[in-house]
Design brief:
Pfam families: HTH_31 (PF13560). The protein is of the alpha+beta class. It contains 5 helices and 10 strands, in the order αααααββββββββββ. The longest helix is centred in the N-terminal third of the chain and has 16 residues.
Length: 192
């Protein structure tokens, strides 16, 4: 992970700036955003100043408030994507606290509704989202290596290598690594 001279991750720095811009565009104070997202004012402030690297759960809450997918938000801090994205140029983001690593294989584009994301969860990783970033988001999850337990709409699905789960996301979801060696999966995301 690259860092600036002051030790900050440049993606976290650009992400913080974009989060502050979004809040300003909506005309919200930190307190108003805290009320809408359920995230404390201090955490929001620290994320906007890039004093912390936001977790996947925190970004999901903010995406829900702003009506964006996580990939859309992350793409807004990157350059306009080219038609061909070389492996070395695919943006990587990680939530160190949960053991979640996310590679944007085909970044979102304003003219397209779909994107591909490669995800890795460390052994024992457990990520819960209290709401989808966009209601009715279509997801196709294909396990490439390992095992994953996914809970969506109160139904738990145990997925092994090669299994694929198709779902529309309306409420809370949970992703738990069910393999001692971790799990790697591909997620196709389609905005409604």
């Amino acid at each position: 992970m690259r860092t600036d001279d002051d030790g900050a991750d440049p993606v976290d720095t650009r992400l913080g700036v974009r989060l502050a811009e979004l809040r300003t565009e909506h005309g919200w104070s930190l307190g108003e955003l805290a009320d809408r997202s359920g995230v404390s004012r201090s955490t929001l402030s620290r994320a906007e100043r890039a004093e912390i690297s936001p977790t996947a759960s925190l970004l999901n809450r903010l995406c829900a408030v702003y009506g964006r997918t996580m990939s859309q938000l992350l793409s807004e801090v990157e350059a306009e994507p080219a038609p061909v994205v070389r492996a070395a140029d695919q943006s990587l983001w990680q939530d160190r606290a949960s053991g979640f690593v996310r590679r944007s294989v085909s970044p979102p584009h304003s003219a397209l509704r779909g994107e591909l994301v490669e995800a890795r969860l460390s052994p024992g990783a457990d990520i819960a989202y209290d709401r989808p970033p966009v209601a009715g988001l279509e997801q196709h999850l294909w396990v490439l290596e390992g095992a994953l337990d996914v809970t969506a709409q109160d139904t738990e699905h145990h997925l092994g290598t090669g299994d694929c789960l198709r779902m529309r996301v309306w409420g809370p979801t949970r992703f738990r690594c069910a393999a001692p060696e971790g799990v790697r999966y591909l997620l196709a995301v389609v905005r409604p």
